[in-house]
Amino acid sequence: MMNHKIILTAGAGALLCTLSTSALAAIALDRTRVVVEGGEKSVSLSVSNENKQLPYLAQGWIEDEQGRKITHPMTVLPPVQRIEPGARSQVRIQTLPDIGTLPQDRESLYYFNLREIPPRSTKPNTLQLALQTRIKLFFRPKALIPAKSDTPWQERVTLTRSGERWLVNNPTPYYVTLVDGSTRPGGQPVKGFKPLMLAPREQHAALSVNAAALGNSPVLTYINDYGGRPQLKFTCSGNACTASPVRSR
């Protein structure tokens, strides 16, 4: 999932508000999440200026889980660059020597931010719009890099029924993001389902909808490394449910 924030400036004033669409974006990223694997010196992201008339500046930085800007153990290069109208460029997430101080038995979570800076308007009293993109950035230790033949770790997630709620259990050392729920594969998403990100080995995280809304065989949708949205169908025995992948037709 990708979060956007609009920055509106008029004269010396500034206003921040949230936006759920990237329709106004001039500076665009080529992905919705980044995975930096142990042993990698850097990861390159493609950045494009979708505005065909004006050059824009693209400013990048990294934040920790608490939203604080950091420059270690990863940094963004270049921190600011000019991208010509309709042109493409790259921004790199560079690992630093102290990357080895991060936990090696589980993933670590950060956020990559990219803000577009429009050219200054020559017209008086002009309202300028700029979009800031924020996506999840995961550091995955070398020992946890899965082989291509490995079963997706999300399939190890289980559900436990507790009263009127389904509780999600993540036994893995990876982050798991659930974005949708339904009563059957390919079915309509349940209203009121709020995305849920589980930390490594997090247990008993409650889904936002009641258990009855998802039925006796819940289907949950997760986001994989590539931004895809596979589904998991849960088979229950008593109050405990295990997952199996929903195969695309």
From TrEMBL:
<dbReference type="InterPro" id="IPR016148">
    <property type="entry name" value="Pili_assmbl_chaperone_C"/>
</dbReference>
<protein>
    <submittedName>
        <fullName>Fimbria/pilus periplasmic chaperone</fullName>
    </submittedName>
</protein>
<keyword id="KW-0732">Signal</keyword>
<dbReference type="GO" id="GO:0030288">
    <property type="term" value="C:outer membrane-bounded periplasmic space"/>
</dbReference>
<keyword id="KW-1029">Fimbrium biogenesis</keyword>
<dbReference type="InterPro" id="IPR008962">
    <property type="entry name" value="PapD-like_sf"/>
</dbReference>
<feature type="signal peptide">
    <location>
        <begin position="1"/>
        <end position="25"/>
    </location>
</feature>
<dbReference type="InterPro" id="IPR013783">
    <property type="entry name" value="Ig-like_fold"/>
</dbReference>
<feature type="domain" description="Pili assembly chaperone N-terminal">
    <location>
        <begin position="27"/>
        <end position="144"/>
    </location>
</feature>
<dbReference type="InterPro" id="IPR050643">
    <property type="entry name" value="Periplasmic_pilus_chap"/>
</dbReference>
<dbReference type="InterPro" id="IPR001829">
    <property type="entry name" value="Pili_assmbl_chaperone_bac"/>
</dbReference>
<dbReference type="Pfam" id="PF00345">
    <property type="entry name" value="PapD_N"/>
</dbReference>
<dbReference type="Pfam" id="PF02753">
    <property type="entry name" value="PapD_C"/>
</dbReference>
<dbReference type="InterPro" id="IPR018046">
    <property type="entry name" value="Pili_assmbl_chaperone_CS"/>
</dbReference>
<feature type="domain" description="Pili assembly chaperone C-terminal">
    <location>
        <begin position="168"/>
        <end position="229"/>
    </location>
</feature>
<keyword id="KW-0143">Chaperone</keyword>
<dbReference type="InterPro" id="IPR016147">
    <property type="entry name" value="Pili_assmbl_chaperone_N"/>
</dbReference>
<keyword id="KW-0574">Periplasm</keyword>
<comment type="similarity">
    <text>Belongs to the periplasmic pilus chaperone family.</text>
</comment>
<dbReference type="InterPro" id="IPR036316">
    <property type="entry name" value="Pili_assmbl_chap_C_dom_sf"/>
</dbReference>
<dbReference type="GO" id="GO:0071555">
    <property type="term" value="P:cell wall organization"/>
</dbReference>
